[in-house]
Amino acid sequence: MTITQTLANFSVVTATDAIPEQVTARALSLMTDLAGSAIRAASDSDSSPSILATLDRLGLGGKGPCTVLGLSRRFGAGAAALLNGAFGHSLDFDDTHSDSSLHPSAPVVSAALAAAELTEASGEDLLGAIVVGFEVCCRIGMALDPTAHYARGFHPTATAGTFGAAAAAGRLLGLTGEQMVSAFGVAASQASGSLQFLQNGGWNKRYQVGEAAMKGLIAATLAAEGFHGASEALEGKHGFLKGYSDGVVAERATAGLGDVWETLRIGVKPYPACRYTHAPVDGLLQLQKMHGWSVDEIDHVRVGLHRNGIALVGTPLEEKQRARTVVEGQFSMPFAAAVALLRGEFGWDDYDLLGDPKAEALAARVDVWHDPSLEGLRHPFGATLEVSAGGKVQHLRIPDPSGEPETFPDSEAIARKFRALTAPVSNGGGKDWLTVLSGLRDATSVRQHLA
């Protein structure tokens, strides 16, 4: 059986009650975490108005049955998937899967939620579909080899995420294994996502993740309506894996499938920036707490990162030291370090430091280098620090950023992050979203539960 067939069959035949309870519980926690980011971004992301205006101008923003987190109006399923995915990823505060270096919830949850409301699915069915989507996109992302995928200029959340979205939506649409193969065939034609946004702080990243959710939903719906998609979408001669990576490790797509749950290896972000900045921020906060430095005492900060991190948040260094837009800040190790040292924390509202003279002066004292000792480890998100301050030099190695599976936040911590994000904005119809989401599992109809 091919990789495509194996993942397609897994997506449709895995019984919801065969998924371990801790796995579906984790999916609900991750969905809640995404919802907080989406609700805030709907009102407070600079790109949200243009996306909404575009849908309305093209006649795609009309009333439908599906919820968009943070908005009181309902949309058609495709538009809802796009908006939830784009909003959920706009703050760069959504979850990460280290081995695939992608954000699974934004594409997968967004497509699954739209399909669940479209089909009047239950809460249990929705969560089962989300788990399936997580497993598919994370495993495809691992098979790509994130380092090789990045080197080709691709954004794995948008590319592999399209397949996860198709798997989740297709399961809720009742696809057969053969139809899911067709859905993956269509997804392979649609999977896209360029890293070129890094050059000027463009808004492409958040939009292409929303697009992945919508495209996955479209792929699954085409298959449900009898559309005949390409076979061997993943491993074929012109398939996704060969076309998008020079370092494919194909067996990672299916190894332990159904026994090893990648869903439990998804981490939650404590800071609204690229995950490669998080271990250094953790370390700087720890060192500052220990030594009580004032900002003026800090002479130099040297951050060691995995080569993936260097590519995303470390080069070109002089430009990273002068981040002026939100996207530039989200992908700037010097800016993240400056925020942590100036504020003693790093939350969404700390982007008010963009262009601040003190922040830029401190960022100019942050150097980023490729630390070979961080290569070949369990995941690439660790860091090393060297801080010269107060006439002394401090060294620290941070193997894992906070929020990884070993330090996954409990339900109260998830709720605190949600409340901190959503408190300043209207959250769409005045709903108590934490209560709504906590009761989702028992809902007989997701659409009615969210109404």
Would you mind describing this structure in some detail?
The structure is a single chain. The longest helix is centred in the N-terminal third of the chain and has 24 residues, at 21-44. Strands 4-3-5-6 form a 4-stranded mixed β-sheet. Strand 5 (383-389) and strand 6 form a beta hairpin. It has 2 domains: 3-269 and 408-450, 2-methylcitrate dehydratase PrpD (Orthogonal Bundle); 275-398, 2-Layer Sandwich (60s Ribosomal Protein L30, Chain: A), CATH 3.30.1330.120. With 451 residues, the chain is α+β, with helices and mostly antiparallel strands. The mean pLDDT is 96. The chain has 20 helices and 6 strands.
Number of helices: 20
User: N-to-C terminal Cα separation, in Å?
Assistant: 42 Å
Q: Give the CA-based shape.
A: globular
CATH topology of the largest domain: 2-methylcitrate dehydratase PrpD
**Secondary structure category:** alpha+beta
In round numbers, the mean pLDDT is 96
Query: Strand content of the residues, in percent?
Result: 5-15%
By CATH's scheme, which homologous superfamily of the largest domain applies? 2-methylcitrate dehydratase PrpD
Count of domain modules: 2
Rg measurement, Å? 21 Å
Number of strands: 6
The topology string of helices and strands comes to HHHHEHHHHHHHEHEHHHHHEEEHHH
Examine the secondary-structure arrangement and name the CATH architecture of the largest domain. Orthogonal Bundle
Poorly predicted regions: none
CATH class of the largest domain equals Mainly Alpha
Largest sheet: 4 strands, mixed
Spatial ordering of strands, largest sheet: 4-3-5-6
Helix content: 40-55%
